[in-house]
From TrEMBL:
This is HTH-type transcriptional regulator DegA. Residues 4-47 form the HTH lacI-type domain. The gene is degA_1. It comes from Flavimaricola marinus. GO terms for molecular function: DNA-binding transcription factor activity; transcription cis-regulatory region binding. It comes from the Bacteria. Pfam families: LacI, Peripla_BP_4. PANTHER family: LACI-RELATED TRANSCRIPTIONAL REPRESSOR, TRANSCRIPTIONAL REGULATORY PROTEIN. Keywords: DNA-binding, Transcription, Transcription regulation.
Amino acid sequence: MPNPTLADVALRANVSLATVDRVLNDRSGVSDRTRARVLSAATDIGYLETGTATLAPVRLAFVLPEGTNAFVHELARHVTEQSGLMEQVSASVERVTGFDPVALAEKIAALRSEVDGIAMLAVDHPIVREAVRSLVADGKAVTTIGSDVRTVDHLGYIGIDDMQAGRLAGYLIGRLTGAESRREEHPGKVAFFAGSLSYRGHQEREMGFRQILREEFGGLTIAAHREVQDSRALAETEMEAILREHPDIVAVYNAGGGTAGIAAVLERTGRAEDITFIAHDLTDGNTSFLLRGTLDAVIDQNARHEVREALTTLVHAVRGTAYRMVPPRLQIVFRENLPSG
């Protein structure tokens, strides 16, 4: 059969495409009997070479920023756990100085000869865009995870719609702060935090947030705007300063990391009860803040799902097989709908 596909293997073995994918990537959840049938079918139709019944190793790297961002640490943990279930796939986690485009560009250039594909939490900067273009031109598989870069042809972005996430945060704050938020004659002050606006994702969250406040909640104004480099310590210092300058603040939206620092100040000053607080990513720490009532809601993007999609997308690209990426689902988590397990 000329140029057999995964669909051809699935048809020959009488199993689903998902089962074929699990077998060829040595994932769990498939019986030995089914695994043998899939490998036999793949060999029979020429998808795998006779006598190998396996695929060539794939070397991947996930380039993530250093720092205290709990979501980034979760990404790294899932890379190690999930790639460990794929025997033909090795994936390393490479750290770079957070928000430094030169360091990121140098790191991915240095990895060029060592890996077949790279996933990165990307700073949107001309130096980074050019480095990505060079990798793609060299035949490397590249995808972004968590934050994208503009005008660069790569496999795609794996992450949430950040503009929608920012609008959602604004909508939640507008509704939770009550009817006064709609009345411009009684303005309420809001604090906005970002990790760094060098991340396209954080830029878009702010854009969406400002957009919906302007459209629907004219009584709310952004009185304080801080970039805290996803640092808990810096977020804590800035939140203390904001409360001194604006003691009448009614809400906080943190579009990046450092949530623990903001929460610590709200709890220490007794303001957790009267300040609406929205943040991102259902980490263990944020779960605790939800349970204590310090956080009102978390906008979650599922680190495990994003890593799985990044691994699968890169592996299929390296091996020249088709795969349709499944984007993560934006989810609002309150104390009352915390997922179990």
